[in-house]
Amino acid sequence: MADTGRPDSALTPADLRKLADGFITPELAAAAGLYRVDDEAGAESVGQKRGGGREFAGIIFPYTNPKTGIVCKRRLRRDQGELIRQADGSTKEEGKYLGFAGEPNRIYYAPAILPAELTNTSIPVLVHEGEKKALASARCVQVSGEKVLPIAFPGVYGWRGRIAIEANSKGRRTPVRGAIRDLDEIDWKRRKVYVLFDTNVHTNEKVRAARQGLADELKSRGAQVYFAEMPVECGVNGIDDLLGQIASVDGVEIAVETWKALLRKARPAAKQSQKDHLLGLASEMELFHNPDGDAFARIMVEDHVENHRISTKAFREYLAHQHYKQEGSAPGSQAVQDAVSALAGQARHEGHECRVDVRIAHHDGNIYVDLCNSRWEILEIAPSGHRVIHSADAPVRFRRTKGMLPLPTPAESGNVAALRPFLNLCDVGDENDGGDVLFLLILSWLVATFRPDYPFPVLIFTGPPGTAKSTTAALIRQLVDPNVAVHRSAPRNEEDLMISAVNSWVSSFDNLSDISPYISDALCKLATGGSLGKRKLYEDDEEVILTAERPIILNGIGAFASRTDLLDRSILVNLKPIEKTHRITERQFWKDFENKRQEIFTGLVIAVSSALKNVEKVALTEAPRMADFAEWATAAEESLGFGAGSFARAFYANRDESHALVLESSTTAEILMECCDAGKISPGVHLLKEFLADLRRYADADAGNLRTSRKDFPKSSKGLRGELQRLDPNLRELGIKIDFLGKSGPDARKGASINLEYKRSQTSQTSQSSQMPSNVVNMPTASGDVYGDVPFDVDEMIDREERAAIQGH
């Protein structure tokens, strides 16, 4: 029965020429019911939306059941599929054939097959991997008079598919996959079956495994299976192209004789090897690679999808377990390794490229969070709100690593203010005002962690012993990226740092006492995005690239982070000691927090949604270091319960503390500021080596060589130059400006020079007074769990501190 389709569905002359190239006549095409569709009808036929650069015009192949004469399925052969760039730089056309999404696989029968022939086991069946091939063989049957039934599946694994929906071990309905039910319509017992797949069966292990899997399935039904092989030297892939090529040169008769010879030479299908069986198990996986070239498999497990790096132990165990379930025996380790190598090669060279993220990703203006729960749900955050979706429906792909723990499922409403009672914050310059400036900065950091591919500020908790630094850092991480390994010790090198970072979203380092310049630079690189290349294990010339950009939490006692580059990227949070009357057990603390975690997390999600909505409207009057973070936090500040402009004022105040910390931790800065304040070094041009001598002379006269013998005090003019360059942005904030002149002027032969500028009145002032705004701003303050807008006068805070200092004297 032909499928007439639309009124304007006649095949075009170009269509008929194309089909003729595949040995298909117009009469055969008409008997098969082929028809043309335009872009709109083509998209409708396969349940797709038009647009996005995809075209759906093409030829429809109806699947007609010989027993009923009813069209049970349609497949669209598009005029143009997607051109996908491969790992080697070449392009590959994908999606040439499309079926309706969710529609089961069916057998494609060539025209003129009678219902009785399906049960007549004396007639051989010829199996192909596509509709055009079956039609080309049908023409050979017409011309030769051979008794053969040409059929096809929609692809090499089209003989398998979803066959049922059953409840899994958790009670959720999940699809069951297996051999399609159409196979039951043919009597296979003692029937000869030829399997004629394309030429790439010789080179593609996945195709070879599919063919072997089909053979094993048919043999289990009693069939006598033979493999007919396409000649490798023919230069074409399918039997339709081969027959069309021969017919155009040597005529139809020669083409038909070639077809008959392929069947005569067919060899019996051998027993499947363990490796081929493992490859067959991978048939329903989607193989792909990420931008770094790492091979991945996307696996349907019960009612969700998982993305696994093919090289991992977990993936090898999954393959071995699937083999055991079907065969009742464990596969050999070499068979598993061979299968893994073959799948990795297919993923890298034939699979498409797709990014794989850990915990948080973005796509098309939305942010996605892997909740890491047992339901494999993904949180979608959009400017309009948030929702929870199934992993299979997400436009992004996540991988899970060891130790990742679930986040709460957000509710409709939340409250970030519920976090405040769990934090004991000391505010900048005033330990008694409740720490709400720092609370705003902590919330801003949390909101920033949901924005991938932008630089992250480093969150640093400091304070004396007994201030719950480790607990506070752990609590903050619980709201973004909970993990069994809450904290890590200080990394020994950049490699350790990057390896830990690529396998988690937040990197938290605990109880630090000092950070070397090398590790400080590595932390900066990680926070703003960096890569590390290292030699691959057991390989001489192959490099592994580790790439990551991650939020970082540090905690420790004292000024353990004092390098300018790191502090310029950091938020400093000083914690106050917990009074004895306020101490509770950790068990009670975490129980109370867990009761509030969903409420807090939902509040953060709402703030992220608000930031997505408002970020394009933000116009910073002055872009600080970490401008992307400042822009994002400003877009979220009002949804966090703070007045407009609050973040900028809080951020600048915190930056002033960073400048002060850098200068306080540097012996060179300490001596230089004293010299400038006392007028011991005059403004103007100085030779570096003389400048170093002047600093040493002043310091030694004041306290012997106690200060100049410190490890951080430079021992040469070269060392002094490096230290002054590192301190330059912090000194400028204090009014001390140093220009590096190099070797120039009349004293060029004596070495490099600098030009020093300063005003004595400025150097004795704190940088805070020059940066903190003088107007009254609305900063929230705590009252139990309720936060309201209370006037917060920055100048009054500073005056209060100065009065306290005077009274103390």
Write the layout of secondary structure elements.
Layout: H1 13-21, H2 26-31, E1 35-37, H3 39-45, E2 58-64, E3 71-78, E4 82-85, E5 91-94, E6 97-99, E7 108-109, E8 125-128, H4 131-144, E9 149-152, E10 160-167, E11 173-179, E12 192-195, H5 205-220, E13 224-227, H6 239-250, H7 252-264, E14 267-268, H8 274-281, E15 286-289, E16 295-301, E17 304-309, H9 313-327, H10 333-349, E18 352-353, E19 360-363, E20 366-370, E21 377-382, E22 385-390, E23 425-426, H11 436-448, E24 458-462, H12 469-478, H13 494-502, E25 507-512, H14 517-528, E26 530-535, E27 543-548, E28 552-556, H15 564-567, E29 570-575, H16 586-614, H17 627-636, H18 646-664, H19 667-678, E30 684-687, H20 688-703, H21 717-733, E31 737-742, E32 753-757, H22 760-763, H23 767-771, E33 776-783, E34 786-793, H24 794-808
Parallel strand pairs: 8-9, 8-12, 12-13, 15-18, 24-28, 24-29, 25-28
Antiparallel strand pairs: 1-2, 2-3, 3-6, 4-5, 7-9, 10-11, 13-14, 15-16, 16-17, 19-20, 20-21, 21-22, 23-29, 26-27, 30-32, 31-32, 33-34
What does this entry look like structurally?
Helices cover 36% and strands 21% of the residues. It starts with 12 loop residues before the first helix and ends with a helix. The strands form ten sheets. The protein has a six-stranded mixed sheet, with helices on both faces. A five-stranded mixed sheet has the order 23-29-24-28-25, sandwiched between helices. Mean pLDDT is 85; it is low at 1-7, 428-434, 537-541 and 762-809. The chain is built from 24 helices and 34 strands. It is elongated and about 115 Å long. Strand 15 and strand 16 form a beta hairpin. It is an alpha+beta fold and 809 residues long. Helix 11 (436-448) crosses helix 17 (627-636). The chain folds into five domains: 1-103, DNA primase DNAg catalytic core, N-terminal domain (Alpha-Beta Complex); 106-271, Dna Topoisomerase Vi A Subunit, Chain: A, domain 2 (3-Layer(aba) Sandwich), CATH 3.40.1360.10; 283-353, no CATH class; 416-661 and 793-808, Rossmann fold (3-Layer(aba) Sandwich), CATH 3.40.50; 666-769.
